[in-house]
């Protein structure tokens, strides 16, 4: 499994060009320059969600090399092959979030417009959203190939719209008055369940495809 | 001598094709050539041996074990080369070596570098800049570096020029002699079979028409004429 994670990281490193990241950096700078602390919060949410799509090029490269036929002839089980892709995807998210935490700490130290806890709550919320999005994205890409990315985005927008609708019906805002410890525990439980269901679904799809 | 691969009464059905009653024995030191026309079932047989697809009836034993509960053990001792390159264009041989050192339990780093050197493959050049021959050589370097007891080569030398083919076949022969391993090699090129195989199996329309020692087959006839006779007999039946 370590070998596959290493492979994914090397392929990503060799595939990604520096230019889009410079562009992203400039864009982030402009947003923060004009929106100040609100801009930082916007970046906290949008950047990790944007980077959630980084595993898609890995699927494309695997398809191009017909890698699956080969890797299935090695001692790695199908579950380990799937799991390694999940781990790589979460490594990307974790690194992004760690960098964001560092940036937010520095920003709130030097330009404290909001309290640090607001910054940290946004980062945790983004972690939650990214986890749900990745849980939808990976099985979708296993099933539909690169197109699965668009399907996952659609499904994600539908879920968000559904929650927005529910907000009017059952007052989701009421959850915000709940003890934060309960909220964190519930969110961790939801993330764990969504990852496990996603992993199970991806494994089923992958096994069926490679029978 | 130990049996490395034993296939008994194997049957696999597809809607438009079936592999019928396949029986094969590959012992230590054997190099078995598997020949047959396109669509004869060679690749299907390789997929079955590698547990990439399931079968309807029969039995496959590798190193005396079946895949149930022994998949990791078996696949750690198998080396595979397919007809196409399966390594990502964006990787170089050095990175490929690092990746596979984590995948196989018995990966021999020194052996890998020795084969890269023997095949004159650059360590830091991306695979996308390799010729077809270089890609095949890299596949062989990987396949031989986990010290496999059984090598499965599916049309791996087709598309190579004769000099490169001879080079690779000689390395293969040397490896088998040194390690007492076994090789199952599927190919269309009969001269390759004559050069290295001590056993020959012939698949025709999903049926194994014969599986014998090459020396027996070529005692008074050419491989080609024996194959023609068997095809005639099979089609007549």
SSE sequence of chain B, one letter per element: EEEHEHEHHHEHEHEEHH
Distance between the termini of chain A: 21 Å
Low-confidence stretches of chain B: none
Individual helix count of chain B: 9
Task: Tell me which protein chains meet in the greatest interface and how many residues each side has.
Answer: A-B, 26 and 30 residues
Structural class of chain A: mainly alpha
**Count of helices of chain A?**
8
How is this fold's topology laid out?
The complex is a heterodimer of chains A (211) and B (237).
Chain A: H1 2-15, H2 18-51, H3 55-65, H4 67-71, H5 78-110, H6 116-144, H7 148-170, H8 180-209
Chain B: E1 3-14, E2 17-27, E3 31-35, H1 42-49, E4 57-62, H2 71-76, E5 78-81, H3 93-103, H4 109-118, H5 132-144, E6 150-154, H6 162-179, E7 182-186, H7 190-196, E8 199-204, E9 207-213, H8 214-217, H9 223-236
Parallel strand pairs in B: 3-7, 3-8, 5-6, 6-7
Antiparallel strand pairs in B: 1-2, 1-4, 8-9
Could you explain the architecture of this structure?
The complex is a heterodimer of chains A (211) and B (237). Chain A has 211 residues and is mostly helical. Chain A has one domain (2-209). Chain A contains eight helices and no strands. In chain A, α1 (2-15) packs across α5 (78-110). Chain B is globular. In chain B, α6 links the parallel β6 and β7. Chain B has a six-stranded mixed beta sheet, with helices on both faces. Chain B has a three-stranded antiparallel beta sheet with strand order 2-1-4, covered by helices on one side. Chain B is built from nine helices and nine strands. The longest helix of chain B has 18 residues, at 162-179. With 237 residues, chain B is α/β, with parallel strands linked by helices. In chain B, α4 (109-118) packs antiparallel against α5.
What would a concise description of this structure say?
The complex is a heterodimer of chains A (211) and B (237). Chain A is mainly α. Chain A is 85% helix and 0% strand.
